Amino acid sequence: MTSSLKPCALLLVLLLFVGLSLGARATVFNENFVPVWGADGYHLANHGTQVSLTMDRNSGAGFSSKMMYGSGLFHMRIKIPAGYTAGVVTAFYLTTQPEYGDHDEVDFEFLGNVEGKPVALQTNIFLNGQGYREQKFYLWFDPSAAVHDYKILWNQHQLVRMLVDEMPIRMLKNLPDRTPGYRFPSRPMKIRASIWDGSSWATDNGKIRVDWNRAPFTSAFQRFNVDACPATGGAQCSSPNLWWNKFRDLTPVQKEAYKNIKSKYMTYNYCDDKGRSNLHLPGECIYN
């Protein structure tokens, strides 16, 4: 899983938000988030500036932001379970309400695996309830060995997924003029995180399932500050006065890093899937 190759392009990527997140004060969980399920003190254990989500045969766990947001930089520090984790899904995502149906969603999903094999990071985007926009990566580090940063930048111009040290791994631009009928996610969304049983699909297309004899499985979440525009009281979440709305594209150095990550660490891209001939490829595949 861990690559010995750490390209200069990765190490030289400009810190897009340097100083804005590094100097942020530690915020406790209860300030901006609430438990959604597994809130029994064990499956969801609130330690103030860190929350542990545990899955066993009885339950998984999840939490949500208290508020809906219309734009922002969404940041979470995560450490996933180690060892045999086949079927275990650790997720950090944004979603409209209701969460299912005709909804928008932006996902980070860690797909567990058997011991000794890499864990895939799957990203996906739902628009009007339509997903099938998966991209998968084997990262250049072991996400179960330590806490790492995961970020989603969402504004009216673009949606950028960024990993540790601000490395961009996925980008979706707002392209209404180029792609008739294409809709960029613009409805207010909540921040969600969870650990749950994805045995039916997560590992080797569901051929390898959760081994409950190896439970419990625990993920850690940190960094509960929210740098975003609350979608309340007619807030102008597309205002150019909000710092995260000033970013319209990647810098040249970031573009080079983005290209490098896609070529070296991406293992699946929905836009390149020849087996999807019965599915309509979304218009963003041409321009993003």
Automatic annotation (TrEMBL):
The keyword Zinc does not apply. One of its GO terms (cellular component) is apoplast. PROSITE patterns: GH16_2. Residues 27-221 form the GH16 domain. Its main location: secreted. Belongs to the glycosyl hydrolase 16 family. Contains at least one intrachain disulfide bond essential for its enzymatic activity. It is an enzyme of class 2 (transferase). This is Xyloglucan endotransglucosylase/hydrolase. Residues 1-23 form the signal peptide. GO terms for biological process: cell wall biogenesis; cell wall organization; xyloglucan metabolic process. One of its GO terms (molecular function) is xyloglucan:xyloglucosyl transferase activity. The active site is at E105, E109. It comes from Triticum aestivum. It comes from the Eukaryota. Catalyzes xyloglucan endohydrolysis (XEH) and/or endotransglycosylation (XET). Cleaves and religates xyloglucan polymers, an essential constituent of the primary cell wall, and thereby participates in cell wall construction of growing tissues. The lineage of its organism: Eukaryota, Viridiplantae, Streptophyta, Embryophyta, Tracheophyta. SUPFAM superfamilies: Concanavalin A-like lectins/glucanases (SSF49899). Its EC number is 2.4.1.207. It is found in: Secreted, Cell wall; Secreted, Extracellular space, Apoplast. Keywords: Apoplast, Cell wall, Cell wall biogenesis/degradation, Disulfide bond, Glycosidase, Hydrolase, Secreted, Signal, Transferase.
